[in-house]
Amino acid sequence: MKRKKLTSYKFNNLQHFLLACSGANLNILRKTPSEWNKFAGIGGVILFTSLFATLSAGYALFTVFDNLWAAAAFGILWGLMIFNLDRYIVSSIKKTGTFRNQFLMATPRILLAAFLGIIISKPLELKVFEKEINKQLNTIVERNKADIEKQMNSRILKQTEPFEQEKKQIQEKTAQYQAAFDSAAVELEKEILGTKTTLTSGKEGFGPNAKRKAELKNQRYAELQNYRREVQPRLNALDSAITKVYDNLEKSRSDVQAVEEGFNGFAARLQALDELGSNSKIMATASLFIMGLFIALEIAPVLVKLISPVGPYDYLLDQTENDYRLYSKELMTKTELATERRIEEFRSDS
């Protein structure tokens, strides 16, 4: 039976653009005008998905590098990649076989589309909840500063403890020399000015006993001064070491706090969004709905292609591919026969 030649129709500019976005074979679509609306709708969804991906990637990069031109260039590049990937995913689904086989073939593509939807939705979630995220970032910064302060104080105590202990030992020994001197001075005063009950010699004034106590007092004073002169360089060294520890840690604290003040990058905003979702069911639900919206948007072209009935385009596409398969087999058969004939001729000549 002779195959009827189908008429080719022309697209308008908008139809041509949307149908090209769908990834369908335009030569076959020209012969099936009843399929134009379906594939134009699929192309429109793919187009808008790539536009959202462009905005999402551009905003994500802008929060990282704070450079408009770099963010715009990367966003466009990412959007084109998503556009091409979506076209491939949709065009690779063939409407042949049972629905079960079609669904199994489409499952990896649906999972990939869902993953892309999550990636696209996150930066836009950050923009939607920007005010709440900024407030949560301040909370995180203050919390981190408090943790840093606690860690710094712990490090100060740990590093200065040996020096402080040695200073304490020196001060305690100095106090002992001071106490011995004070005791000798009190005993001398009692001996000179005391009453009969406090005098050891029983006589007031500077007698032989008072002279011995004056010598003891001078001895204790000399011991105190000698010890002070002896330990003063070590005390200065200990004070210098303690001051150095404080200076180094203060510098570290300033550097870390400067970093904390700039805690405003993409990962920081994701952390703030996660904490907001953990602390508020409303935020978690809203974030889930936004993510679900973009996942649905991303898998919509695949689902539309999957659940749509087999149409003229699918029959023609399958027929065209089958013709190419038969043509290829025919060429291979002819080549094999020609090869066999040449082999036979070679054998007969030899």
Automatic annotation (TrEMBL):
It comes from Planobacterium oryzisoli. It comes from the Bacteria. The chain crosses the membrane at residues 39-62, 68-90, 102-120. This is DUF4407 domain-containing protein. InterPro entries: DUF4407. Pfam families: DUF4407. Keywords: Membrane, Transmembrane, Transmembrane helix.
